[in-house]
């Protein structure tokens, strides 16, 4: 008798769990929630630590990192049925020095199963040339303080700022050996037409399942060592001060490959 009662309890438990699972799988077209992109900056398989971390690039050159900032914009998600949901008016400035900036939240994402994410590294030409009144938040040139993510002399944003020190870099007037790799240039300018905007598209091995009670988090690894060994090998001994748009093209081509999706959290709220 006890065995039968225990078996009945197990069946009842399975029904409850299965029912809950099916409920979570149901897509209500009226539901919306958020998806958060979580950026985990690394150097190879090591976590990025500003100022104190000692790293080696693919050319065997040692380096430390003092600044890593980059813009993320024009995010879109593709559903399993091929539908694409775009967020053209969301701009994020990711700064290794600011833990809060490593989480980029996209709000009001329609319920669905999303298998792909795309985003641009940089600030598109439309917003770069728009009236200053439309460039607020992280796009406000006056809001950066020491970040300096805007070239006043070039009327454009710095998409990617990577700075540090290396023993292979010549000593400056203060006795330090700094490198500065700054990337900007949205194309269409009168004197400098190079376009260093880069779009990254990444598959999601396990879909981001947006539901009324599920707000997925997509965890991305960002391997900045790819800056040195992507399409073009870059050596700090030769390339350590880049502020020009044309000179930055190989860097932009390289860092396009530094993003990868590690995993997706689909935890019910």
Automatic annotation (TrEMBL):
Chain ranges of the Copper-binding protein MbnP-like domain: 33-240
Pfam families reported for this sequence: MbnP
Keyword list, A-Z: Signal
Keyword Translocase in record: no
InterPro entries per record: MbnP-like_dom (IPR046863)
Domain of life: Bacteria
Annotated signal peptide: 1-23
Descriptive protein name: Copper-binding protein MbnP-like domain-containing protein
Protein's organism: Arcicella rosea
């Amino acid at each position: 008798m006890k065995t039968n009662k225990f078996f009945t309890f197990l069946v009842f438990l399975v029904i409850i769990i299965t029912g809950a699972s099916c409920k979570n799988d149901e897509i209500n077209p009226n539901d919306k929630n958020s998806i958060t992109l979580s950026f985990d900056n690394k150097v190879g398989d090591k976590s990025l630590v500003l100022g104190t971390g000692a790293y080696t690039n693919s050319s065997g050159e040692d380096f430390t990192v003092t600044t890593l900032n980059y813009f993320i914009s024009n995010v879109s998600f593709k559903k399993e049925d091929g539908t694409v949901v775009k967020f053209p008016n969301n701009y994020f400035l990711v700064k290794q020095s600011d833990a809060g900036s490593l989480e980029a939240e996209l709000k009001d994402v329609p319920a669905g199963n999303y298998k792909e994410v795309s985003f641009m590294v940089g600030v598109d030409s439309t917003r770069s040339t728009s009236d200053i009144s439309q460039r607020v938040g992280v796009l406000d040139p006056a809001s950066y303080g020491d970040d300096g993510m805007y070239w006043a002399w070039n009327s454009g944003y710095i998409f990617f700022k990577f700075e540090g020190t290396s023993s292979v870099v010549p000593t400056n007037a203060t006795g330090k050996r700094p490198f500065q790799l700054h990337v900007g240039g949205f194309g269409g300018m009168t004197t400098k037409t190079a376009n260093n905007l880069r779009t990254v598209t990444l598959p999601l091995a396990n879909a981001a399942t947006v539901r009324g009670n599920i707000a997925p988090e997509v965890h991305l690894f960002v391997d900045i060592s790819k800056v040195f060994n992507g399409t073009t090998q870059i050596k700090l001994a030769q390339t350590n001060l880049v502020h020009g748009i044309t000179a930055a093209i190989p860097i932009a081509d390289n860092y396009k490959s530094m993003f990868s999706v590690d995993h997706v959290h689909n935890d019910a709220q």
